[in-house]
Design the sequence.
C-alpha cells in the first residue's frame, strides 16, 4: 500500500505545482498589458491624476511579485478583490453563479456518463456492423458541431416549435427542484449530446483495444460464454480506461459550459467570464479563469489517480 | 390513409423483400429496420413524420450518390499512384473531400458567386427571402446568402492561417526537441504541459481580454494554444525516426541539424502529421467559431459564420431556420474534414482494429 500512497502523493504534488504555475500565468498575463490596468481601464483620454488615483486604489504602486502573493493568498481564501466596472466584490458576483454552473455540469454528467458508457460498450461489441457505422457517423457529427449549433437546434425544435421546454434558462430562488430540472433541461441536454459523443467514442476505442488482447482470445477459446468474457475478464481491466474517459470528458464540460450558458442566458460563471472579457474587467476574468483552470486540472488529476488505483501495472513501473 | 403513406410503405416493404430474396443481408436489415421505425413514427407523427423521413433518406441518397460520383471523378483525373489509394476510400471520405472542395470554391470565388457585397445594406432588417435575396436579410438588412459565401473565405481562411501557424511552431519545436534533446526538449515539454493544463477556450478568453480582439491577436493566441498538440505528436514521431541507422549515418557524414530535419526526418514522418493537420484544423475552426459567437472573434462588418449566428439568433424565437445555416456550415465542414482524417488515420494505422 505504501507504494500506491507514494505514487498518488507524487501525482498530487505535480498537480499542485501545475496549479501554481497556471496561477502565475493567469496573474502575470495581465501584466503584459501595454501600460498597466489603470491606463487600460480609463482609456487614452484620462488625466494623469485619475490614472494615479486608480493606480493607488488597485495597489499598483507595489511591485508585481508582491501583488501576486497578495492575490494568491486572497484567492485561496475565496477573496478575488473588487470588480473594476461595478466595484462589487468579485467573490460575491461569482459564488452564486459558481453553484449554478456546478449544478448544470452535474446535471449533464449524471445523464451523460451512464448513457455513454453503456452505448460505448454496446457499440464496441457490435463493432463493424451497420449499427456501429451509423453510431460512428452520428457521434462524429455531434463532436464536429459547435455547441451553439446543437443548442439552437434544440431551442428551435423543443422550445419554439413545440413548446416542451423554456428556451431561456432563467432561474429564481423559489423554484421547486422539479421546476429547476425542467428549466435547465435544454442546456443540460446540449452538453449531454456533445459529451456523450466524445465519451462513447473513447469507451468504444478502450474496449476494442482490450478485446484484442490475447487473454480475452484465450478465454473465448476455452469456451467461456460471451457475457462472462465481458463481465469477468474484460470489465475489471476496462475500469481504468473508462474512469480516465469519464474524467477527461467532465473536464471537457468546462469549456462547453461557457458557450452553452451564453446560448441559454444561463446565470453561470461562463456567462460572467464572457461579459467580463468584453468589458475588460480583469479581476473577474482572472478569478473565473483560475476557477475553470483549477477544475480542469483537478479532474485530470482525478483521472490519473483513478488510473493508478485501478491499474496494478501502473503501480510497478519498469 | 393518403396515397403517399400507402406508396411509402409499399416501396419500403417491396425493397426489403427484394433485398431478402437476393440475399443482401445488410441492405435488408437497413431497409426493414427503417420500415419498423416508420411504423412507430408514423403512428405518433402521422404523414408529416413520414414525409420528413423520406426527405432525410432522399438527401442521404443524394449525398451518397454525389460522393460516389466525385470519387470516380477523382480516380479518373488523378495519376496512377494516387487513384489506387482513392479506390479504397469509403464514401464518407469521398463526401468529406467533396464538401472541402465546394467550400474551397466558395471561398476563392466568393466575390463572383455572391450577388452582393458582404457589408452592403440592401433592404430592411430581417426582410424575408425573395427573388434577389435567396435567404432573406440579416439584422441590418444585408443579404444573408452573400454573407454566408463570404464567410467561407473569412472564417475558414482565418482558421487555416491559425492552424498553419500552430503547425509550423509546434512541428519545428517538436523536431528540434527530438533531434537536439537536452534542455530545449525539457523546456519546450514543460511549456507545452502548462499551456495544455488550461482549457483552450478559457486561455483564449484570458488572452483576448488582455490584448483586445484584433485578427492578428486571434491568430497568434489560437496558434499558441494548439501548438502543444502538434509539438507532442511531432516529437513522438520524430523520436522514433531519430534512432534509425540512416540518421546515424547522416550524422557521421557531418550533416547539420537543419539538413537532418529537412531531408531525413520530415519525409519519414509526414503521414501522421498530415492527419494531425486535419484534426488540428477542426479544433482551431471550432474554437474561432466559438469566440466569434461570443462576440470576441472576427469583428463586424466582416462576414463570419460564428458571429452571424449570434447576430441573427433572435430570429430563432420566431421559428426561423436561417440563423442556423451558418452554424450548419461550420458543422458540415468540420464533419467533412473529420471524415477524411478518419480514413487517413485508418489507412496509416494499417487496419489495426479487430
Sequence:
Amino acid at each position: 500500500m505504501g507504494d500506491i500512497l507514494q505514487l498518488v502523493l507524487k501525482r498530487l504534488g505535480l498537480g499542485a505545482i501545475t496549479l501554481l504555475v497556471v496561477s502565475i500565468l493567469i496573474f502575470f498575463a495581465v501584466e503584459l498589458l501595454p501600460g498597466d490596468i489603470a491606463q487600460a481601464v480609463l482609456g487614452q483620454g484620462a488625466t494623469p491624476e485619475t490614472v494615479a488615483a486608480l493606480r493607488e486604489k488597485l495597489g499598483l504602486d507595489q511591485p508585481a511579485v508582491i501583488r501576486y502573493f497578495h492575490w494568491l493568498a486572497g484567492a485561496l481564501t475565496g477573496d478575488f478583490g473588487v470588480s473594476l466596472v461595478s466595484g462589487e466584490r468579485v467573490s460575491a458576483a461569482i459564488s452564486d453563479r459558481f453553484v449554478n454552473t456546478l449544478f448544470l455540469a452535474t446535471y449533464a454528467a449524471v445523464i451523460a456518463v451512464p448513457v455513454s458508457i453503456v452505448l460505448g460498450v454496446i457499440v464496441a461489441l457490435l463493432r463493424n456492423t451497420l449499427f456501429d457505422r451509423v453510431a460512428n457517423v452520428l457521434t462524429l457529427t455531434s463532436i464536429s458541431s459547435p455547441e451553439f449549433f446543437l443548442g439552437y437546434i434544440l431551442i428551435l425544435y423543443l422550445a419554439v416549435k413545440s413548446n416542451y421546454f423554456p428556451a431561456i434558462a432563467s432561474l429564481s430562488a423559489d423554484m421547486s427542484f422539479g421546476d429547476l430540472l425542467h428549466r435547465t433541461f435544454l442546456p443540460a441536454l446540449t452538453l449531454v449530446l456533445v459529451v456523450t459523443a466524445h465519451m462513447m467514442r473513447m469507451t468504444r476505442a478502450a474496449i476494442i483495444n482490450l478485446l484484442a488482447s490475447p487473454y480475452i482470445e484465450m478465454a473465448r477459446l476455452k469456451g467461456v460464454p460471451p457475457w462472462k468474457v465481458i463481465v469477468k475478464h474484460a470489465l475489471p481491466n476496462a475500469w481504468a480506461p473508462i474512469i480516465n474517459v469519464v474524467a477527461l470528458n467532465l473536464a471537457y464540460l468546462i469549456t462547453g459550459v461557457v458557450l452553452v450558458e451564453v446560448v441559454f442566458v444561463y446565470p453561470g460563471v461562463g456567462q460572467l467570464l464572457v461579459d467580463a472579457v468584453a468589458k475588460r474587467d480583469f479581476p473577474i476574468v482572472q478569478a473565473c479563469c483560475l476557477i475553470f483552470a483549477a477544475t480542469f486540472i483537478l479532474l485530470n488529476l482525478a483521472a490519473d489517480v483513478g488510473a493508478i488505483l485501478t491499474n496494478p501495472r501502473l503501480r510497478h513501473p519498469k | 390513409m393518403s396515397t403517399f403513406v400507402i406508396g411509402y410503405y409499399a416501396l419500403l416493404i417491396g425493397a426489403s423483400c427484394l433485398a431478402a430474396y437476393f440475399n443482401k443481408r445488410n441492405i435488408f436489415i437497413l431497409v426493414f429496420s427503417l420500415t419498423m421505425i416508420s411504423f412507430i413514427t408514423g403512428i405518433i407523427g402521422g404523414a408529416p413524420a413520414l414525409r420528413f423521413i423520406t426527405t432525410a433518406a432522399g438527401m442521404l441518397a443524394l449525398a451518397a450518390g454525389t460522393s460516389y460520383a466525385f470519387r470516380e471523378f477523382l480516380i479518373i483525373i488523378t495519376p496512377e499512384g494516387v487513384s489506387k489509394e482513392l479506390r479504397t476510400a469509403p464514401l464518407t471520405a469521398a463526401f468529406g473531400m467533396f464538401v472541402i472542395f465546394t467550400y474551397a470554391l466558395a471561398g476563392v470565388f466568393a466575390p463572383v458567386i455572391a450577388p452582393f457585397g458582404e457589408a452592403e445594406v440592401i433592404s430592411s432588417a430581417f426582410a424575408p427571402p425573395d427573388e434577389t435575396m435567396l435567404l432573406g436579410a440579416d439584422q441590418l438588412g444585408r443579404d444573408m446568402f452573400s454573407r454566408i459565401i463570404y464567410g467561407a473565405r473569412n472564417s475558414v481562411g482565418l482558421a487555416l492561417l491559425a492552424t498553419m501557424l500552430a503547425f509550423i511552431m509546434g512541428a519545428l519545436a517538436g523536431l528540434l526537441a527530438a533531434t537536439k534533446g537536452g534542455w530545449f526538449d525539457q523546456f519546450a515539454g514543460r511549456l507545452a504541459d502548462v499551456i495544455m493544463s488550461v482549457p483552450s477556450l478559457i486561455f483564449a478568453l484570458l488572452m483576448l481580454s488582455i490584448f483586445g480582439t484584433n485578427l492578428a491577436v486571434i491568430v497568434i493566441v489560437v496558434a499558441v494554444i494548439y501548438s502543444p498538440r502538434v509539438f507532442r505528436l511531432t516529437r513522438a514521431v520524430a523520436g522514433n525516426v531519430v534512432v534509425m541507422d540512416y540518421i546515424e549515418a547522416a550524422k557521421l557524414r557531418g550533416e547539420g541539424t537543419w539538413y537532418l530535419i529537412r531531408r531525413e526526418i520530415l519525409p519519414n514522418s509526414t503521414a501522421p502529421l498530415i492527419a494531425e493537420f486535419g484534426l488540428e484544423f477542426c479544433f482551431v475552426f471550432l474554437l474561432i467559431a466559438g469566440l466569434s459567437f461570443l462576440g470576441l472573434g472576427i469583428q463586424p462588418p466582416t462576414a463570419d459564420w460564428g458571429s452571424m449566428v449570434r447576430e441573427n439568433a433572435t430570429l430563432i424565437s420566431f421559428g426561423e431556420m436561417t440563423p442556423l445555416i451558418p452554424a450548419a456550415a461550420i458543422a458540415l465542414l468540420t464533419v467533412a474534414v473529420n471524415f477524411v482524417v478518419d480514413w487517413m488515420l485508418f489507412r496509416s494505422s494499417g487496419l489495426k482494429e479487430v
Summary: The two ends of chain B are 48 Å apart (CA to CA). Chain B touches chain A through 50 residues (CB under 8 Å). DSSP finds 15 helices and no strands in chain B.
